[in-house]
Amino acid sequence: MLSFLRGTVHSREITGGQADRLVLDVAGVGFEVAVSRRTLLTLPAVGEQATVHTSLAIRENDWTLFGFSTGEEREMFNLVQSVTGVGPKLALALVGTLGPEDLAEGIMAEDYKLISQAPGVGAKLAQRLILELKSKIEDWQSRRGTAQAKAAPAKSGTVEEVRNILEGLGYTPTEINMALKRADEDQIEEDVELLVRHSLKVLGAAAR
């Protein structure tokens, strides 16, 4: 029904619940959108223009508009909901915590520990996700031209130490994954001090 919204960021709120809150002003109409912490941290500041990919979930009398920073996040969100017992809020937690690429790689590599980082996901659900999604993920990766059955890269001791430090500072797995991914994109050297400093800079800028 609604593929995307483009407008001015009216307000953004970290709720502390399963989904954070965004209000987007589109031609004078305020759309309330449920978003993951990952999406909220990548959005522009209040008063700036933003485009949000959307998916409308209808449950009896409850209509909720979910928003994503990329089309790939929305695709994975819809794909994850095909798993038995997974509703939109749990799907948002999975995609928001890991991102579409890491979630896909975790499923293909049968990495239960990685998948279980998402809140509300235990070992049994991680197993069900792998069982029911593996062939669908292969098709999804094939359509996007990415390598199939790609194993998740091994986490170095340095990265794990940085992750533990950031967790100790109160950051969530979603925030940590986002910061470490940015460090990888920026080709930051695998040094604990450099990675922590870079991650804090990224997370500080995103929170503004």
Shape estimate:
globular
Give the termini separation: 32 Å
Q: What structural category arises from helix and sheet content?
A: alpha+beta
Strand order of the largest sheet: 1-2-3-5-4
Number of strands: 5
What is the name of the CATH architecture of the largest domain?
A: Orthogonal Bundle
CATH superfamily of the largest domain: 5' to 3' exonuclease, C-terminal subdomain
* Low-confidence region ranges: 147-154
CATH fold description of the largest domain:
DNA polymerase, domain 1
Number of helices: 9
Q: What is the helix/strand order?
A: EEEHEEHHHHHHHH
Number of domains: 3
Radius of gyration: 17 Å
Measured as a percent range, the helix fraction is: 40-55%
Broad CATH class of the largest domain = Mainly Alpha
How would a textbook summarize the main sheet? Answer: 5 strands, mixed, barrel
Structure commentary:
The structure is a single chain. Helix content is 49%, strand content 20%. By secondary structure, the chain is α+β, with helices and mostly antiparallel strands. The chain folds into three domains: 4-68, Nucleic acid-binding proteins (OB fold (Dihydrolipoamide Acetyltransferase, E2P)); 72-144, Orthogonal Bundle (DNA polymerase, domain 1); 157-206. Strands 1-2-3-5-4 form a five-stranded mixed barrel. It is globular, with a radius of gyration of 17 Å.
Summarize the structure.
This protein is of the alpha+beta class.
Q: How is the secondary structure organized here?
A:
Elements: E1 4-13, E2 20-26, E3 29-35, H1 37-42, E4 49-59, E5 62-68, H2 71-80, H3 88-98, H4 100-108, H5 112-115, H6 123-144, H7 157-168, H8 173-185, H9 192-206
Parallel strand pairs: 3-5
Antiparallel strand pairs: 1-2, 1-4, 2-3, 4-5
